[in-house]
Amino acid sequence: MKETEILKVGGVILYPTDTVWGLGCDATNEEGIKKILEIKGRGKGKHLLLLVKDEDMLKKYVEQIPDLAKELLKSSYCPTTIIYPKAKNLPLHLLSENGSIGIRIPNHDYCQRLLDELNAPLVSTSANLSGMPTPQSFTDIDERIKNAVDYIAEEERENNEIKQPSAIFKIDLEGGLERIR
Predict the structure, then answer these.
(1) What CATH number does residue 106 fall under?
(2) What is the Cα–Cα distance from 96 to 81, expressed in whole angstroms?
(3) Alpha helix stretches (DSSP H) within the chain
(4) 42-89, pLDDT tens digit by residue?
């Protein structure tokens, strides 16, 4: 995939996910992260979430995966992001002040292929300018976003199916679970 090579050198892509169209970069590449924040016009204090291929990749970036999280991931019928309390092996400015990080395992062929080839987590944030509504389809994405990225995926551009952002759950240090969205 051409986009994998772009990601490896700090580039940013615009791509479809199992939720909405996203801006993505290699989560281990600080230049890519900075570029996403610039494109969105977003401050460093705002959180970005990650996509990982599977539970094995997830284990590389969080201290532990509580059984409750494993059960939620197996039983969830919709895309689900979980905020894990103790992230590891990631750039510090990706983490919230308390060291947590939101991560989703996408059920989406394009994302899975991308993650497999990149062999690293992918930053994924909605393809909108900070403070603006999340675009419901590719045609709704602001031209400034389209012009600022290094690559735009061909997949699903014509698909105007309305998708929703993921459900978000937060795991606390004691292993409890709270629904955020």
Answers:
(1) 3.90.870.10
(2) 15
(3) 2-8, 30-40, 55-59, 67-75, 109-118, 143-148
(4) 776 667 899 999 999 999 999 989 888 888 888 887 889 999 998 999
